[in-house]
Design a protein that fits this description.
By secondary structure, the chain is mainly beta. It has helices at 2-8, 28-32; strands at 18-24, 38-42, 52-59, 62-77, 86-99, 105-108. Strands 1, 2, 3, 4, 5 and 6 form a 6-stranded mixed β-sheet that branches.
Length: 110
Amino acid sequence: KEDAERMAAGAPVREPKTHEEKLAASWWNDITSGKKRFELCKNDRGYKVGDKLLMQEYAAGAFTGRTILADITYMLEEYTGLTEGYAILGIELLKVSETDTAGAESEGTE
């Protein structure tokens, strides 16, 4: 709706962004299985519906090589009980990339 209003007013439409985020290894299976279809985060990056999240898995402080690419399909902000400045993002998986211990990469969507 916001983009349609901006277009009608002759203002430039914002191009979707890809936001990189660190992901705790403990959330990997829930996200890739589709059980967890949301992210709770501080909205200090200007997240918008239509943007993408590139979630990079970290374990013991190090990047594991595994990534998840997801679309932001919904945003909940300024809601009773939600801390000011935070948002709940509805996500849809686009791509899951895994790197095995030998460094070979496999890709797929679950």
